[in-house]
Design goal:
307 residues, alpha/beta, Arc Repressor Mutant, subunit A, D-Maltodextrin-Binding Protein, domain 2, 3 domains, 5-stranded mixed β-sheet, 9 helices, 39% helix
Length: 307
């Protein structure tokens, strides 16, 4: 029956709260989602959703259908996982979510090598600095940082590599404005902020077992680390940037580490995925390949350059 194919669409509409959000999560048009739900209601002969200008409300029939649809979708996923786990060679569609900068700088060169090793996998990379709903978005695996509150109750997290940050600026900026000697000195500087950080305006440091925090501000904030790095190169201010973004600029001398004797909080990069009874071979292969490629405990971007 065609109604089985509408189950993931209906579940996405309910969980995302509307046709537009469900369409984005599923990679469909809004009209395609709406037509699928209309067809489902026609086949069932019952109204599942009350549509208003502001929101969608489940009818009594819709609530019953949703409860069973969720269980059916979970059962279908478990059945698929049980079969794919037995495959000798990873295959099938693999949907990966990644932050924009990490995806561009590190996954982009890694994925062709992964696909050369596993040519039967069809990989889709979705890059977005906002955290996505893995289940509603049909995501098999997402790359996230430990600062994002990992893991939540429905996800499994596997550590990929340490995530370190560095405070840095151009020599041009420091020559004009002076070099901070203590964290408190940053309050007098133009500090450029990564807007998606939960502590964007409050930077914390440690040295010799002591902690120091300072409220910082500046005339520029942005939700992309590479764009932030470009502003630092231009001498606009001081910024806190992941080493997987800033490492080459510091090694080349374009940027200078600020307060290097003070340690910034260290987190980790994780691969997170929905908890499953069976882990598909394609997901397991990607996890193992990523740890091998990135370097595990000492990622390649944090290593001293070889002479």
């Amino acid at each position: 029956m065609d109604s089985f194919g509408a189950i993931p669409v209906f579940v996405a509409v309910v969980e995302k709260g509307g046709f537009s959000a469900a369409a984005v999560a599923l990679g469909l048009s809004k009209s395609a989602v709406s037509k699928r739900i209309n067809r489902l209601e026609a086949q069932l002969g019952v109204r599942l959703l009350h549509r208003t200008t502001r929101r969608l409300i489940l009818t009594e029939a819709g609530e019953r259908y949703y409860d069973n649809a969720v269980r059916a979708l979970e059962a279908a996923n478990r059945a698929e996982d049980a079969v794919t786990e037995l495959q000798g060679e990873p295959s099938g569609r693999l949907r990966i979510s990644s932050p924009m900068s990490f995806g561009r700088l590190h996954l982009a060169p890694m994925i062709p090598k992964f696909l050369q090793r596993y040519p039967k996998v069809q990989l889709e990379l979705v890059m977005d600095d906002k955290k996505v709903d893995l289940v509603a978005g049909g995501i098999d695996l997402a790359i996230r940082s430990g600062a994002d509150g990992l893991p939540d109750s429905s996800l499994v997290a596997r550590r990929l590599a340490p995530l370190r940050h560095v405070l840095c600026a151009s020599s041009r900026y420091l020559d004009r404005n002076g070099i901070p000697q203590m964290p408190a000195d940053l309050a007098a500087h133009n500090c450029l902020l990564f807007s998606y950080s939960s502590d964007a305006g409050e930077w914390t440091f440690r040295r010799n077992g002591k902690t120091a925090s300072v409220s910082v501000s500046g005339n520029y904030q942005v939700n992309n680390s590479e764009v932030l790095l470009a502003a630092l190169r231009e001498g606009l201010g001081i910024g806190r940037v992941p080493t997987f973004v800033a490492g080459p600029a510091i090694q080349s001398g374009e940027l200078v580490a600020v307060l290097p004797e003070w340690q910034l909080p260290e987190h980790a990069l994780y691969a997170v995925y929905p908890e499953r009874a069976y882990l598909p071979a394609k997901v397991r292969a990607f996890l193992d390949f990523a740890i091998e490629y990135l370097g595990g405990g000492e990622p390649y971007w944090d290593r001293e350059p070889e002479d």
